[in-house]
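Quarterly update from the structural biology core.
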Amino acid sequence: MKIRLSGGVVASGRHAWIARPSGPRRLLDGADAHPGTPVALGPEEAPAEDAANAVRELSLLVADGGAVAAGAGVDLGAGFRSARLEGARGDQRDAVLAALRAVGLHGAHRLGDRAGVLVALFGPAVTRRVGAAAGRAAEEGRWAALHLASAASDVLGPEQLEQVLALEAPEGVDLTPGGSPSVLAGYLRQVLGAVPAPRRLALILDLWERVAEHRTGLARREARLATQSRRDRVADLRKRRRHDDDEHILWQVRMDLEDEQPSLADIARWTPGRWYWHERLQRVFADAIAATALLRTAAAVADHGLEDGLGRSAPVLRAAASLMPDWAAGKAARRVPGLTGLPTRPGAYVRDLARRLDAARPMDAKFAAYVRPRLACARDFALVIVEDIGRVMGDMVGTHDALLREWSPSLESWREAAGYDRPPAEWDGILPWSGPMLGDTEPLRRRLTPEQDPATVETAADLLWYVDLIDALARLHGHERAQPAPGTGDPWFVHDPPPVVEPLTPRLDSLMGAVSGAAQLVALGGVPPRAPRTWAALTAGLASATAIAEALTGDFAVPAPLAALDGAAVPGTRLRLKIGRSARDVAEWADYMGNCIAGPAYVEEARAGRSGLAGLYDADGLLVANAELMPLRPASRGWRVSEIAARFNDPPDETLEQRFRAWVAAIPGAVEDEAPQAPEELPPSRPARRRAAPRLVEEAGPALGELAVRSWARAAPEALDVLAAVAGTGPDAALARLRRFGGPQLTGAVGRALDEGATDLVRLWTASGHRPLRSALDALDPALRDRYDQLPLLLGEPPLPKTLRRLVKLPAVADAYSLDLVARRVRRAIGALALQDDPVIARAFAKPTAAQPLCALAVATTCAAPDTGLVPVTPPRTTTVPGYPATTLEDEEGPWQRALPAARELGADTAVFWDEIAEHGLRVPASWLAHGGWAALWSRAHTHRR
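Predicted structure, tokenized:
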């Protein structure tokens, strides 16, 4: 029997066994298994027991090293060796390195002759010294160096490889988290092929250092964030602190009025005195110092371990603890039934830690169990206190400026312990706040002279203590300090800004990502500089080529059947399809995925409309896989998946690939007149004038702008008032601020607005339903819409093609576009709150509500099936929904079918709706039904028609 194996090998006189749940199974034909399947090759007459043992060893090998390790021909015992059927990706070096990692250096003899192993890893020019260096690297577990050396053996000589094999990665940091050595080798050849051989080693060593530095920063961020609780306690702390504030205000009213039971009229006439404002300022100041101390301690413990980290933080903890007297600590720690067990103020935990350190107790497991929960809520305390400071300043600035100038707590003892992170000589303050607080006094930067101690000059009005708190939050997230966000209102700084990713700039998140990004630049026409000394100089030279800018121009001729599916959910996968519309789209994909989808061969086919390039995105907007879709012949037969690959050209999930291929196979083919036709060109008798290209902005802009202005005038007053409540700004600034928010930040802002009563769910739903640009597009002349088929892209997420970016910058269109964009994002934020079972949604449904948001959110939770305690409203396979008025899920004119588009805006994959109904029925979180069950909730949704 002949068995075709990976690498073009044909095994004769051997039989193959594969692992199955029922036990080992002999393959009678290669078609009985998927391409690349790991097999155990053995004698034809092998006893069943030997075959079972070999398959068991094969399963262990695959579990430790992946399916790729089976291709190394590992000895499985009793004359059996591992192998892979034909169709596997990669080459022998991938298999040998994966198998070596799985069996370890002590089991390297199972891979066969040592010389053969070294040749597979480093090529035929390998020397004994390289083999010895590789052995040391394997013995010491320096697999990233071995991975890189194996890939670089195509471009480096033996002596240079020895230096690569001597590299050491920072402890606990993986520089090669994805991608195989053979793929990395191909990219290295592409990037360094034109670089002089003597320069290549220096570039690779510098790349190693840059990636190691970047990965170390990421590891530091992960370690610091790991000190914090996975449970978000911000909402719980808000409630607890609000309860504490309410009690304090009532006490102050009774004291001022000298009446234990004042009337509502007396309370309404009461005006807070100066001591009330002074105490509010002092409380948030002390809370900010305490939260800063907790954050710094958490970061120090993550960086240096429990004992060393606490030792470094002891002075800071003691200084912060001194700001809270015993009575205040006892009151803050008092438990309140029905509210969180966390203290209302962080100073209580700071005092606990300071006392434990002063008691000099052994730092054993019991001590750690006491400390870590008190550090785990540092971030939650900080976020709530930043909000409270903004609230206090909002209440006082402009109305109590004299009181702000009177308030002057001492900072000297705090600065003696904590020092400065931001140079005081460079601090100008936060003008909208520190200006009224300082009055005629100059900012700290101007008051401070070189010979002065900053602690003796700084005052609380400088607000450097406030930015210290946000800086401590930023360091917990792995940043050096918070970034200013001028013009956005409080908190004025962003503690966890999203990374700035320049298009086509090779990433440093892994060796594979960096090299594949550089290879993409080469594929687009980049030429390396003459003698680059660093990796940064090499990539900068590659990116500067004018050929790259030319390669990224022009849109794709997307065939109509594929264009119709842009944004569609792939059935059974919870993924969405995005069709590449331009070379820049696929260049951005290639930059993240580390593949060659932006190469000339793919781009030219897509430009001509002979293929479609696609990305598959998960529910979080993360790109999971790329694919090339090609028409069958003839084109009317339909489509097929020509290629599909995950990041770094790794194979995608097998189930995902099968379902995607089946879905693509069902896409209808292109009608003949839809296929791009190359015009027959006859030699002109005289020079022909070039026909002007359609000018979208010039021709569609005025008409669309006029319609957009009308729609904006109808929608803006109501929508902007509500969105301003979410943004915490005036209506004029609301859209600009909300557009800057990331997804989690916007979700938090929506949750706060609902929680604090700044708006309600029905008003927010109505406001987010206003789409002036969509209304304008619907009213646009159909001839213009047909001519410019890019216009529907305005209703999607950025980035937009260049022409559409020009269009939305027109003054008549810009506001309508911004409102549409923000409204869609607010809907997605509402959906996120519902899937998290946030209490603000349950409280909204405890009051009179509306059917539209209720139906859409119920559909969204049913489709997503979050693990938040869902309860059935209808039994499985039932379409009649209980309650009055009666409804059915399948009524095309009913509220449930009309809710499907809105549910998709909430983030739901409605393709699985009927599958979920069949298996579980319509389901909603139990918290929504706390006030009378579904019948009462459905009745409340119809009490007031809106």
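The chain has a mean pLDDT of 87.
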